Amino acid sequence: MSDMKNYENISSDMFRFVQMDASIHDKKLETKSRGYFADAFLRFKKNKSSLVAGIIILFLLLFAIFSPIISTYSVKDKDPVYVSFPPYVRSLAESGWEGFSGTTTRSSQNENSMAYWKAIATETGKDPVLGIIDSTTTYVQYRGQQKANISYTIKMNRFHEVGNLYRVFSYETFEDIQRWQDETGLQVIYPYVESKDIQNLTDNPNIWYKISDVKGTPVYDKDGNFIPVYSRNKAIEGAPYHSLRIEGDDGSYIYSSKKSGAVQCRVNYYNYYTYTHGREPMFLMGTNSMGQDLFSSIGTGARFSIIFAICVSAINLTIGAVYGAIQGYYGGKIDLILDRISDILSGIPFIVATTLFQLHLSQRVGVVPSFLFAYVLTGWIGMAALTRKQFYRFKGQEFVLAARTLGASDWRLMFKHIFPNSLGTIITRVALIIPGVISTETQLTYLGIINLSDLAGTSIGTLMSQGQVAMTTAPHAMFFPALFVSLLLISFNLFGNGLRDAFNPSMRGVDD
Amino acid sequence: MTKYIIQRLLLMIMTVIIITCICFVLIRMLPPAELPLNDIHTKVIEARREAQGYNKPYMVQFGIFLKNVFTRFDWGVSDKLYFGQDVATIFLSKLPATVFVNLYSILLSIPLGIGFGIVAALKRNTWVDYTISTLTMVVISTPSFVFAFLIQYFLSYKLGLFPFLMNAGTDYMSWGMFVSMLPVILSLSFSVIANFTRTTRAELCEVLTSEFMLLARTKGLTKAQATVRHAFRNCMVVVVPAILGEFIGIMSGSLVIEKIFAVPGVGGLYLNSITARDYPLFLMVSCFYTIVGLLAGIVIDISYGFIDPRIRMGSKK
Known about the structure:
Largest interface: A-B, 38 and 44 residues
Number of domains of chain A: 3
CATH superfamily of the largest domain in chain B: MetI-like
CATH class of the largest domain in chain B: Mainly Alpha
Order of helices and strands of chain B: HHHHHHHHHHHH
Oligomer: heterodimer
Structural class of chain A: alpha+beta
Order of helices and strands of chain A: HHHHEHEEHEHEEEHHHHHHHHHHH
Radius of gyration of chain A: 36 Å
Structural class of chain B: mainly alpha
CATH superfamily of the largest domain in chain A: MetI-like
Distance between the termini of chain A: 62 Å
Radius of gyration of chain B: 24 Å
Shape of chain A: elongated
Number of helices of chain B: 12
Number of domains of chain B: 2
């Protein structure tokens, strides 16, 4: 009886191993053992579509990382003239890549406008007309005579069609441009034209030839050439000019006019752009309606989206896992109460939560943190439900009972023994949360409810809403951001599905 | 079953009231819109604000608000966007556009979605199935406004089949209105069709491989008979609640698509109320969205019980 009372303090030397000297007859496994993750990876490799999706994701990530670095533009560069212009890279365009020639199609161009384009080509040496696609001739009765009206459809280079513009410079800048002209041999400043010589037109710096009416009908000389009307009026000259002169100039043309303390010039915008930026315009994906380079803007926006999505999913996963673990592990009343709370939270529409957070917090903590809170408010619920289910599945199993018998604490049981078993499900979840976050973020920035421009520069949604402004004339500004975000989301979803099939082979082909 | 429904409804009402209370307090905590000095409505709005208990404790305000809503359906007066007008009236005038557009889109989506799903399941693991499944996957992943842009650019602009934006009038039954709604309907339908297709295919695939199908074939039914009588019925257990849920959800519509096509509906109203900071309007539409979302969930759950006796949750008690 006495040793029965003493059962709590049995000294260790009273124990001995039963099978200490028994030999094990099992054969050692000869094949290499393979863990859960290695197995999943093998299965994942077999899934071709997910592999391709993975490669596309990698490519898009690299694009997001490197495009703002490679590009010579940043989202802050907003050109006032090259707005909604199609992709243009001169070297690629010259080697025959149609897509990079900055081309647009213009229809119903009459003789006057054709002459106008030809005048730009003659003066600047950059022909805006790339080719005539189609021409239709209509005959009209005009003062008793039949008159042919020819209407052309032409392909134009939008960068060259800008031609010359009026710009006002200080005297120093004027000198500097002249110095730059001498160095590079590129003509930026063209001779000045007085409006009295061109039918008092003041808003058209591209007319340098004699015209007979305000519609711009040109008057040709006997050889069919334009008659230049450059000003020789030294009285209005703004500053002395001593740089490159255009062909046919005997030194008497003036290149600027007086403008209270400054000079006004006709500048060739293409060369002027080269002067101000140190290089020719080069837009791999064109520009949007704000005059931003799309190539670097998409990268900048995507960077933010991806980092944000990763942050959101990390936070939500942590909260969801802990919450779901507590729910599933303890069960009973705690489960019921926590379930009610998550039920109520999940009833709040996401858009309402976002807006309220914006209204209340964006002034105090900034737009992005309050946006993040909105995601965190309800985003973890799905994860919690998932973890809860896994915990209910595992908590009654023998290995958990064994660990409990050995004295493991609740926390250790939850996160050391049960949680790793649901890791596969959780990894899958991450791959599916990220596209969800990117998608809603894009929608909200598109709608303008969230404006990330201060912090992130821009975002894909903002780019799309800017693209929509000029959708009919510049579809590329819509197309590239949309393509990027669609590719990203599709690949993330495919990738996530592949992961799910790899981790839970029993779920193959079932979509949840 | 009745007990279960009542239980769910009561829970829903509780949830709605809690969420409304949170939204309400959060909105009332913001400074109310400044009123112009020399406007005839200003006095009226100030009087109504006084009656609504501005300056009193928030819970008192909330009590007054609930009383007004339940007794007179009075949601307050718009103080920015539609200056001096009743919020509920404005809201109800915007609702039909959203409902019509979404209703048409669902009516289009149900046959197409279920049809594609059935075809994919019956031709399982052939190129037909792969094509349909891949397309479904792509459509579900792509944000709906990408389709909206494609439709607007190609169908409305390039081909000129439809007007660019939806007509603004209220003659929802006229032909011109219907044509102007078509791009909206199409853009909305893409994701709904894909959802139906995916649900139907997954469910039908599972049913087709189950053992009672084998039994049906062994007792002498042809494949067609077995499929129609046994497989379809069982697969509808999942599909019908999904359809019902969509029907409830049609009222909330899609903010993005309504903006792109300028639909004069609830989504546009909501966006405008946010940008203009018209809080009474914002509160009402928020409550509306909450109720619609919760209602859809409940209808799905309850309809399961009606359709499939195996899942009558309340009956156990």
